[in-house]
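Could you show me some protein's one-letter sequence and the numbers that encode its backbone in two labelled lines?

___
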Amino acid sequence: MSTLKLVILGVLLSASVTVLADYSKHPEASDFISTMVNKHDFEKSQIETWLASATHQKSIVKAMSRPAEKVKPWYKYRKHFISNLRVSRGVQFWQENHETLKRAEIEFGVDPAIIVSIIGVETNYGRNVGSYRVIDALTTLAFDYYTYTEKRESRKSFFTTQLEHLLLLAREQGKDPLTLKGSYAGAMGWGQFMPNSYRNYAIDYDGDEFADIWTNPTDAIGSVANYFKKHGWKTGLPVATRAHVKDIPDSATLNKMKRPKTTIAELITQGYTPTDQVAKDLTAFPLSFEAKYGQEYWLGLHNFYVIGRYNPRAKYAMAVHQLSQQIRTSQCKLAEDCS
């Protein structure tokens, strides 16, 4: 299809979306409304009112179509998340929440540096939790985003489910769903949990009987730790190691963010040599990143995969890992305790 035809098609699609600004009247909203009424006992008029109040956001479609993980090479992506300022803020966050992080490490077995790094990467320690109304983000993505992408069913199903969980979450917490703010993808709070993750993994960690990851760093820390534990974090095991390669690997074998099944011993026979001392029976998968002056090769172990359950992009998981290392180094020097 020519560029001109694609532009015209995009304009027509945008126009059709604008006409259907009232999501209660969207052709595919009736099934969603029926689910909320019949499955979850909501009032039909209430669901219709909320959907009618939701607003299509073109900027969300644009942002979702150009994720930084795909567009930016690793050496540019890395700079966005790993800086002296973000490291120093991470150390400050660690110091301010030292007791909570220690308790989370004991109770959940999750490395405190990883918890701090996740919150740093996701929201810069609560400084950027998102300004979109979550209901706007999720209605746009549930009912209109698939119009712009070939991944119609998977996208539609995922974001429709998130919209369902948003309304359930709002009811459970006694909140007006029209007031909840988050990212352009509908993620919320210091740890940027999607609505289903919020309902499944967010916890009350300060004993006030309310799981508040919007404004409460204690609950955010406990919730991130709980998320990692539930997704299989293995206490005390490494995350990743740099590797030398005998020959340039087939790119089709790299950066597959799936549960690793190949042992380090087997990867060594395939031409990968870890630069760190890693147990040969641990499982890992090969990674490659575009550095400024060539390719970097790594082996991602099980805990690297677990970080990827938060966001299934290799660049994201590596940014979290490397930021955590720098934060840990700075924190232990400051505390004079690098044990």
User: Anything to note?
Assistant: The first strand starts at residue 132 and ends at 133. The CA atoms of residues 36 and 42 lie 6 Å apart.
